[in-house]
Here is the input.
Amino acid sequence: MPLAEPNPTPPFDVLRVSHVEIGVSDLDRSAAFYVGGLGMVETARDDETLWLRGLEDRSHHCLVLRRSEAGSCLGIGFRVRSAEDLERAAAHFEERGALLADGEPRGQGRTILARDPFGMPVSFYHRQEQVSRRLQSYDSYHGASVQRLDHVNVYAAELQATHDYYTGELGFRVSEYTETDDSEPQLWAIWGHRKGNVHDLALTNGVGPRLHHIGLWVRGEMDVINACDVLAVSGFAGSLERGPGRHGISNAFFLYLRDPDGHRVELFTGDYRTLDPDFSPIRWSLDDPQRQTLWGQPAPRTWFDEGSPFSGVQPRKPLVNAKPLVAQGS
Amino acid sequence: MPLAEPNPTPPFDVLRVSHVEIGVSDLDRSAAFYVGGLGMVETARDDETLWLRGLEDRSHHCLVLRRSEAGSCLGIGFRVRSAEDLERAAAHFEERGALLADGEPRGQGRTILARDPFGMPVSFYHRQEQVSRRLQSYDSYHGASVQRLDHVNVYAAELQATHDYYTGELGFRVSEYTETDDSEPQLWAIWGHRKGNVHDLALTNGVGPRLHHIGLWVRGEMDVINACDVLAVSGFAGSLERGPGRHGISNAFFLYLRDPDGHRVELFTGDYRTLDPDFSPIRWSLDDPQRQTLWGQPAPRTWFDEGSPFSGVQPRKPLVNAKPLVAQGS
Amino acid sequence: MPLAEPNPTPPFDVLRVSHVEIGVSDLDRSAAFYVGGLGMVETARDDETLWLRGLEDRSHHCLVLRRSEAGSCLGIGFRVRSAEDLERAAAHFEERGALLADGEPRGQGRTILARDPFGMPVSFYHRQEQVSRRLQSYDSYHGASVQRLDHVNVYAAELQATHDYYTGELGFRVSEYTETDDSEPQLWAIWGHRKGNVHDLALTNGVGPRLHHIGLWVRGEMDVINACDVLAVSGFAGSLERGPGRHGISNAFFLYLRDPDGHRVELFTGDYRTLDPDFSPIRWSLDDPQRQTLWGQPAPRTWFDEGSPFSGVQPRKPLVNAKPLVAQGS
Amino acid sequence: MPLAEPNPTPPFDVLRVSHVEIGVSDLDRSAAFYVGGLGMVETARDDETLWLRGLEDRSHHCLVLRRSEAGSCLGIGFRVRSAEDLERAAAHFEERGALLADGEPRGQGRTILARDPFGMPVSFYHRQEQVSRRLQSYDSYHGASVQRLDHVNVYAAELQATHDYYTGELGFRVSEYTETDDSEPQLWAIWGHRKGNVHDLALTNGVGPRLHHIGLWVRGEMDVINACDVLAVSGFAGSLERGPGRHGISNAFFLYLRDPDGHRVELFTGDYRTLDPDFSPIRWSLDDPQRQTLWGQPAPRTWFDEGSPFSGVQPRKPLVNAKPLVAQGS
Here is the structure.
C-alpha cells in the first residue's frame, strides 16, 4: 500500500504537537530528572501535578506530569491554529462518537479531549497561558538545557491505517518512511509533520497504541554530552538506553533515556526543514542498518519492545510482522 | 506608529525567502569563498552564472552569482505555496504597474520578477528543480558546512512603510523589533517571517533599499569557528567583519563576513520557533547594547553603513535619524 | 600487592611513548582509514610501509604501517631524552640479553629494538627527522583531525610484575589503577605515564602481551562526532566498536574503532595533568560500572577479549582471573 | 640578539607555574566573577582572602585573592620538584640579596618569596595541601568550567634580559617568539615553558614589570562561548575585552576578560605539546597580523597598554620601541 497523499484541506488545522501528559509515581523524583537533569523549567506545581516547559517556551507547558497511573501516557496535546479550528475539531470527533471531554485545564484555554480511531487519547486547543521565556537566562542553563518539545513517537498496531488517518484525513505530511523489501512492501514506520521539520508525530510498527518516546529539542551535540555527564553523576547513569548517536532517518543527533517511571525520552537535535510542498518523502528499507543509526550500531531490543501504554486503551499486536535489526543479545 | 497586524488573508501565500541573486566580478574567486570556504554546493555553472545550494537543500539553488554589476544585489527570491498563489502574485504586481518580467529561469519554474513599492527587485515562484541532497555526505563537509539560506536583511529608508507593506499587506509576522525610546517611539528595525522561525526578511533603518546581508544557516557554533579557521588560512582572513558572537535579538550565534565583492554574509545558528499565532513580538530599545550583541561588544561602523545596492534603484536617505551604538573609533 | 613506587632514578629517561608499528594487509585500505577517515598526515610511503603523523607533529611519524604480519603489532616506540639515555637503554637491555637490534630506521636516528621482560617488542630513540607541522593547515583538516599519539594500552598476563617493571624500574608513574575488591586486592589495570598526563602506557589484565589499543589524541568531542559521521559514509560504519562515551578513569571522552586489520584505535580527548610529584594514584574497583564508562554503559565482550598479538611472542593466560562487567550478550 | 639556549642544569627545577596572587577591592564581587561566572571552585575564605582552584585541581589553590592593593598583582607562584630544589632556590635568591620571605602560607608548605632581577615578586614551593578534585562533579559545572591555571603573561621592560634570565639561567624553554623585522631583529615577546606545553610564563614587551594576564585552561571552545553567555546575563557583559578568537601563536582558542578590579584573565584552550628536546621555537614577525589573531582581527589598544602593576615595584618604559598592529581607533 502506498503512502497516502496529505489532505490539502483537513477538517481543522493542526499547527504542531504541543504537549504530552504522563503518569508518574513520584513528582520529586521526576523533577530531579526533568528539571535537575534535563534542564527543563518548572512552570507550576500542585500536589498532584507538575507543569514543565522548555527554555525557549513562552507557553505554559509542554510536559505535564501527573501522580496517577505511573508509567502510562495520559494523552498527547496538539495545538490548532484558531478557535474556529478548535470548534471544527470538536465537531469532527463528536460526529465519530470520540469526544471524551470539553473543558479548560490549567494553563490552556478551551481544550477538547478525544480518542483517535485507534484509541489514542489526543487533546486539541488553540492557546496556552503565556509565561516568561528563559531563552537568554543562560545563568540557569544546566544539564541538557532542553529548549522545547519537538515530537512524539508512538507504536501503531495498524500502521498503514493510522498513517492513512493522520495523513489522508488530518493533513500530516510524511518526511521519511520505512518499509519492508517485500514484493508488496509494507509500511513499517512513518515520520509525519505539520510544522515543517521532520516530525510532530512518528508512527512505529509495534504493539500499540503505546507511546514510544517524547522527543525534546536541545541546542546541539554538546548539550547531549553534557546531559550524559550530569545524569551520570546525579544518580541517573542507568537512565541511558541508546546512544548518543546519529540517526540515518532525520539526520538528527540523539540520545534515548528512560525516566524514573520508564517513559522513554529522546534528546534530539539537528534535523532539517520540510516546508516546501514538493518535498518528497525519503524511503528507507527496514533492513538498512544505517536507518536507525547512521554510524552502524543497532538499537537494543528494549528500544523496539518497550513503551508506555495509553491510559484506558488495551494495546494490540501489530499487523506487520517484519523484524528490524537488533543489537546482538540485547 | 505601532507595529502593523499581519494580514491574515494576504493576496498570495509566501512560504519563505528562497534565494538571493548577486553580482560578482570573478566567479572563480566567489566559488573559492562560498564553496571552498563556506562549504556550499555547486549545482550548476555557465560562463556567466554560478548556482549554489546548501548541504540540506533538495532545490536547485539558494544563491545565484552573476558576472555582472559586481557588488550589486540583483534580486531576492520568495517561494509561494502554489501555482495559484503565483498567479495571484503576478496579478498583485501587475495591478500596481510593478511587474518587470514573467519567465522561467534556469532551475526554477515560472517566475515573476517585480519591484516592491520601495524599488527592491523581488521574484516569486512555486517550485525549483529537485537535485540530490548532500545532508549526509559528511565526507565532503568542510568550512562552514552551510545547510541552507535562512533569511535576508535589507536597509529600508522608509522603515515604517516598508514594514506596513510586508506585514499589513503580504502577511509577514514580526518576531522582534527595535524602536527608539522617544515619547513617540519610531520603528528602527523589524524581523519578519513567514516560515515560523525568527525571520525571512529583516528590515534595518538606513540608506535604502540596499541589501544588508544574506543569512546562511549553519549547524552550530563549532561550524562557525571552523569557518573562521579555514577562511583564515585560505586567503580570506580579511573577510571577517564582526563576531563571532551572540545576538541579543534572535538569540542566534553569528559571524559576519564580506565576500570578495563586498556582499555581507552572516553565518547564523540557533534561533527559536515562532509558529504559534499568539507569539507576541519582542521589543528592544535602540539604546540597549545587548540588542546587537548579547555579550556587549558594539558592531563596527561599517556594519551600519555599508551594503549592496539593488540593481536599478537609487538608494534614499532614511526617514529616521536615530543612531545606534557603534564600536569606538570603528 | 601494592602499587610500586616509581623509581626516581631510572636507568634511562623515557620522555614519552612516541610511535607504534603495526602489520597491515593493504596499505591503501589502511590509508583510507587512517588518513581519509581519521585525518592523519602521510609523511612517507614506499611499497611496504606507510609513515603517518598527527596534525601537530613535527616529528616524522607516530604510526608506521607495514605490509607484513597483518593484524600483529610489530613494536612500540619510546622517545628517550638524550643520546646518553639511549646509550644507557642499550646497555640496560644488552645486560639482560634482550637487545634485538641497533640501527637507524627511516625517519629516526639511532634506534635500539629490545624485548621487555614479558616479551613485548619495544624500541627506543632520542630524535626523529623534523617535518612540517600541519597544526594550522585548517583547510586540510577532516575526519577526526588526529593531533598526535597519546598513549598505548597493552594486555599483560602478569599484570603486577609488568607494573613493577615499568614503574619500579623504568620510572613510569601511575595516575589511576583498578583492583579487585578481594581482602587481598589484586591489581587489574594501571595507567602509567612519563609525560605528565594520564598515560603513556596502560596495562590491562588479559591474555598477553598483546596490544589492546593505540590512543590517538583529538581536539574535542566534536571531532569524535565528526569522525563517526565521516567514517559512517566512507564505508567504515562497521569499524565502531564502543562509544562514543566518557571514561570514568581518565575522565576522557572516547571512541573505540577497529581498523581494517582489526587493530583497535581509540580517539581520546580531555584528560588532565599529573605533573605534580605528590599526585596520588586514583583507585577504582573492578566492579564499579562507572570505571569503564562514566555514563554507565558496559563495554562489549570483544573489547575485553580481542587484541593484536605482538610479532614473535606467544601470548599467555592472565594470572588474575577476576572478570569485569560486560555488556549483556555482547 | 638571539634566543638564549635553555640552561640544561638550572640551579633548581621549576615544575610549572602554580598560582597567582592578586589584590582585589571586594571579595564577594570577585567571587561572583571567578566562581559564579568562570566556574572556579572556592577552597577557603577568610575576611581578607579567597583561595580558588580549578575543577581538576587536587592542590589547594591556583588563584589567591587578597583584599588589599586592589588592581595590583601580589606575586606569581612556581612549584619546584622537591624540597631540595626549594632549598637551592632559597640559596639562589639569598646569594643575590633577593630573598624577601621564607614561611608557610595557608594551603602550601614551606614557601620562599623573592624578587626576580627585574623586580617581579615570585614565590616557590614544592607542595600544596591536597583537596578533593571536582573533575567529575559535572552537576556543579557552570560558566567557563575552568579546569586549572595554564600560564601567566607579564610585560617586561627589558625583554631580552628577562628572557635571558628565565631561559639561560632558570631553564625555561621557548616555544614561540616574536621579533621585529629589523636588520638586527629585536625580541618582542617570548612564550617560555617548563611543563611541556606552550607556556608557563610569557613575556611581552611593554611598560614593566606588570602582569599582562592570567591564563586559565578551559576544556574547549564551547566552554568559552558558554562563559560569554553566562557573563553577559550576570552583569559582566562589560568584562569582555578581546575575542573570542584563535591565536596564531600557540594556536589556542582564547577570550580575554577584565575582572572587577581590571586584572586581565584569558580563557585558553587547545595548544600543543612541546616535550621533545629538539622542538625548535617558532618565529613570528611583529608585523604579521595573524600572529595575534589567526582570523585577522587586531587586538584593541587596551590589550597592549594596560596591565596590573606588581606590588612594590615601579614599572619602567620598555627598551624596545617597535609597535604592534592595533585595532583601528581602539
Notes: The mean pLDDT of chain C is 96. DSSP finds six helices and 18 strands in chain C. Chain C touches chain B at residues 36, 136-139, 141-142, 222, 226, 229-230, 232-234 (CB under 8 Å). The helical segments of chain C are 27-37, 83-95, 159-169, 221-232, 289-292, 301-305.
